[in-house]
Amino acid sequence: MLIQIDFESDTPIYIQLKRQIIQGIALGELQPEESLPSVRQMAEDIGINLHTVNKAYNLLKADGFLTIDRRKGAIINSSALSLSENYKAELEEDLNYIIAEAYCRGLGKEEFLNLCSELYSKYIK
Amino acid sequence: MLIQIDFESDTPIYIQLKRQIIQGIALGELQPEESLPSVRQMAEDIGINLHTVNKAYNLLKADGFLTIDRRKGAIINSSALSLSENYKAELEEDLNYIIAEAYCRGLGKEEFLNLCSELYSKYIK
Amino acid sequence: MLIQIDFESDTPIYIQLKRQIIQGIALGELQPEESLPSVRQMAEDIGINLHTVNKAYNLLKADGFLTIDRRKGAIINSSALSLSENYKAELEEDLNYIIAEAYCRGLGKEEFLNLCSELYSKYIK
Amino acid sequence: MLIQIDFESDTPIYIQLKRQIIQGIALGELQPEESLPSVRQMAEDIGINLHTVNKAYNLLKADGFLTIDRRKGAIINSSALSLSENYKAELEEDLNYIIAEAYCRGLGKEEFLNLCSELYSKYIK
DNA sequence: GTGGTCTAGACCACG
DNA sequence: GTGGTCTAGACCACA
């Protein structure tokens, strides 16, 4: 899986990495049971420090996206994540703002929903 | 308009402020031509630093949401914002990630679109 | 509050720190709303690196023991923690082993319960 | 005796192994004079490294739980272990922290003692 | 060779 | 001045 970091961006590298891995999982590029490159390997591949990779991996672990096996390294989790109340609250808050801005900028409801629908389709196999 | 800052949140205060003002505009609580409290007033109301309010106002100005007049203070812009390519690209990127995570966490397409639809409805007068 | 780190111990420093802070809370030495020393201050006080302190603080934050306020630094949480299933399962597993060993080493049930009772009493105001 | 290793756990495999053997002894599943599977056998059974089993066995030997005989392999010790001061100090320290956390998380004294009592009962024949 | 821990030092965002 | 991020380099525990 190809990771693309934007070093100019103001979103931290470890966040960018975390997000791309999640997208990789959603897209099916990363299959359950599959193992990610070791922190050192991944760090070398994208030209960043291993601690930064470590941070991303640990966050993904905390979120339940992967488990860290002492023998095999980081492994994509097969078990579907639970739809926690916590997550739903955060999602709603994020969407709430995004939609408010979209509305202000003149992006109508239809258009917005169409955009979401189109984007979601990418993840359905 | 009531501003509610969560001081324990990870999102910077000036971002929270900016977002709430945008939501206020979207909800119609803040009408075009209406003027916001002065930087000093707003800072005192919420109990935050003057610079923080200033930063939020300036970002809103840069985004075209308000004009800053030396005499009248910050005024909500009446002119509808243009749907800039820049904005659309950013929106798409944000949504892309949000949807990927929603998908991973088991929030189906229907549910996601329904949620968006419901949230959007709040802004339609 | 006095922190005592055992540099010879094989339990990581950040874990020792985390535990002592929790004990401090339990003992009432650290009161809700009270703020901890800044990471730099604490690091200097106990003669360790600020990153190590940071790690402990962040774990405590993740566990809900404290919140990190942008203005005031790390603050002891007032809200009682919820008795999560997760925690109970871990506690039971830990106790299970501890008790098995106690039993093997000849520490009887009465003695064990008395010890627990005595230790618990320290935390009741 | 059935050994169950959680490869995704934070606790090292050799520690998990050691603990389960102690629990096995406490439960009476492993009787004095009984001999454990050979290092090689055990390693194969659980699917772990030979050195890992070796480490667990040696720790158990150091703690007096078993004797390692070149011909007969690892044998459960019949002699009751002594209640060393060392052990008692460690136990007290561990319990001290566990109880502090339990208190913070809202697990009352009664409940805690009941839990301990219940868990201890499993080991009394 | 793997991740985990710790240190040191630098820069930045925030308030 | 605060915490957050990133880098670099070192040592250790684990398997």
Sum up the structure in keywords.
2 domains; DNA-binding; 2 strands; 125 residues; two-stranded antiparallel ribbon; Arc Repressor Mutant, subunit A
Topology (SSEs and partners):
Four copies of one chain form a homotetramer.
Chain A lengths: L12 H15 L11 H8 L3 H13 L3 E4 L3 E4 L8 H20 L4 H13 L4
Antiparallel strand pairs in A: 1-2
Chain A binds a DNA duplex (15 and 15 nucleotides) through helix 3.
Walk me through this protein's architecture.
The structure is a homotetramer of 125-residue chains. Chain A is mainly alpha-helical and 125 residues long. The first copy, chain A, has two domains: 13-76, Orthogonal Bundle (Arc Repressor Mutant, subunit A); 85-121. Chain A contains five helices and two strands, in the order αααββαα. Chain A has helices at 13-27, 39-46, 50-62, 85-104, 109-121, and strands at residues 66-69, 73-76. In chain A, strands 1-2 form a two-stranded antiparallel sheet. Chain A is globular. The two termini of chain A are 18 Å apart. The model of chain A has no long low-confidence stretch (mean pLDDT 92). Chains in contact: A-B, A-D, B-C, C-D. The interface between A and B is large, with 41 and 40 residues. The first copy, chain A, binds a DNA duplex (15 and 15 nucleotides) through residues 10, 12-14, 38-40, 48-52, 54-55, 57, 68, 70-74.
